Structures are given as C-alpha cells and as structure tokens.
What does this fold into?
Amino acid sequence: MSSVGDAIRDEARLAAVDSYRLLGAPRPVVLDELTRLASSVFETSMSTVTLISRDHQWFAGSTGMPSSGGALSTSFCGHVVDRRLPLIVRDALNHPIYQRWENVTGAPHIRFYAGVPLTDEDGYLLGTMCVLDNRPQEAGDRQVDLLRTMAGQASGHLSAIRNRLLLAEVGDELSRAISREEDFVATVSHELRTPVTTIQGYLELLVENEELEKYRRMIEPIQRNGERLVRMVDHLLAGTRPAGTPLPLLRAETDLIGVAEAAVAACRGQSAQRGVRVVIETPDGTEPVPVPGDFTRLSQAAEHLVRNAILFSETGATVTVRVDRDGVDVVDTGAGIPAEELPHVIDRFYRGQYAREQAVPGVGLGLSIAQRIMKAHDGELTVDSGGPGQGTRARLHLA
It folds into this structure.
C-alpha cells in the first residue's frame, strides 16, 4: 500500500515540476542571477537551481556548468531529492560512491557539492539549490543557512514565473510584456555569457595546472577581463530595460545581514585585487535583520554600491558596510564626488570626471540599476559626498 502511495506522490511531484514549463526552455535570468550570487558567497566555480524530472535533471538556473542538465544516475541533486535532506560532499574523490562518477573523474571534475531541497509553495519537492566546485571545500552552518534562503528565493521566483505564464494565457497584456522581455533577456544573456563562461571555466583549469605555472602571469589577466566582460553584459541587460516594464520582484522576509554578506562576497576578488579592505558592521548581537524584500535584487543593489566604493578607493583603504533596521550604508574614504556631479550620478550611463580621467572600469549603470531595485521595493537610494577627496556614503533605505 505504501508503494502505491509513494508512486502517487511521485507522479504529483513530477506534474508539479512540469507545471513550471522550464524543462528544455531558456533559463530565466533571475535564476541565473541567483546562482551567480550563490557562487560568490560560497567561492565556488559552479552553482545551479536544478529541477528533477523522472530520469533527468535540468538546470533552470546555472553558473559555470558546461551543460544544461544530465542523467540522474550521476546526480548529486537527485540524491537530495531522494533523501529530502541537504547534502554536503566535501571531497567527492574520497567518497566510496561518488568517486567513480564520470562528472567527478572527468569534466567538470566535481569535488565539492552542497545542496538543499527546493520546495514550492504547494509543498512539492522540485529539485535543489546547490553550489559545486572542482576543489574540496567546507560548508559552515551560516553558509548552509544562506543556501536555504536562496532556495526559498528560487521557489518564489519559480512561482512568479508560472503565475505570469498562466496570466499571459488568459490575455493579461502586462504579463505578456514581462514574459516577452524575460525571454529576450534570457536569450541575449545566454548568447553573450555562455561563451565567456566556458572560456572562464577552462582558464580556471589552466591556472590550477602546476605545469603551466610559468604562464600564470598571462592567464590571470585574461580571467579578470573575462569577469569584467560578464559584469558589463549583466549591467547592460539590467540597465537598459524599458523604463515602463516592471522589475520582476519577489517580496519575502529577507535578512539584511545576509544581503550585505552576499554583496561583499560578490566583490571579494575585486577588493583583493585592489588591496581594499571591506568590513561589515551590524546591529548588536547576531540575530538576523528581517525586511520584506527580494534577496537577490537587494544583494545586487548592495553589490553595486560596494563595487563602486572599492573602485574609487585607494590601495590600503577600508570600505565599511553598515546594516541597520531600515537599510544598508556603504561608506568609503575615497575620491568623493564634486557637488555639481551629485545630482547626476544616478543617471544611466553617467560617468564623472574622476571616473573618466582615471579610467575607472564601468559603463555608468550600477547606481541606476540599484535605484530601480530600490524603487521596486518602495525604498530609495541616496548618495552623499563631502566633495573631492572626502569619500562617499551611499544608502539603500527600505520604507
């Protein structure tokens, strides 16, 4: 009797997976963005939002993976769904089962895996939110908690995507417009980012090859410029959306400390390269700072502010990210902003005199993207400076 019940439950789960219509479809950009955020927090080269069908896994969101899915016979995510529990594999080569899998012995050479169940609003287990790397790693409790938060965000975005599809079918013009734009952005993002991401993956393998140590001096700048190109593509896609098109947003309880941590993690490489220290200051205690908002979008907004602060700071300087009950401040002691430029710094494609003269990387879209995210949250972005050489304070304020 129990086997019949299990079969019925499994059929219902598979029907729920199919209802999102993402198997074989272009990946939603918002899920790709979420996986990039996860990879930044965990410092991994790969991350996915994985849907598990009857005999196949499909990456509905992906960063760094060389394929769009695969068989369940060598699927870490399939084990998470079977066990209905998180799975942490610190080194797959030392595991009695996983060490023989082809995705461990061959490309993409998985060593580390951390995945948590992805459950939708109806209680169906759709798949996983996971991070992977080609080097052994550890996963602390705080990181696993953040991965669970991201799984909740992925579930919310999936529900929103399905709801827009259903509305579009019954003739809702706004939902049709959003769906058309998301399809366009997903296609363009895939065509532009996928080749660069593939190149980045092979470059990482070259960097880790000890026989090529003498060439590392040439490989690493290629890596950095590849990352810069990916960020520029992301900025252009996010910053040039039609002004009248609403930003797809998921409102859920979000921890502002987690937002700050994710933003700082995303800028970790840049801060190390430029020799700028980034510190996070939080309210007394270690309790979360809950706000209603979209974790991915808020983290992106904060990332833009942190990245700007790093770019306009001198080597050896410190950027401070302060979290309070109403928002996030990013404070630097760098180049500052002249009074006549302050009214324009949030304008799309605006680059101040210092940015032009010092060839600071960027296309002038970061603050405008952050502003759009804050407006979607009924909040605001403010930027203040004492003038040239006096540093800058940028604030994300949530109403």
Summary: The longest strand covers residues 125-133. The chain has a mean pLDDT of 84.
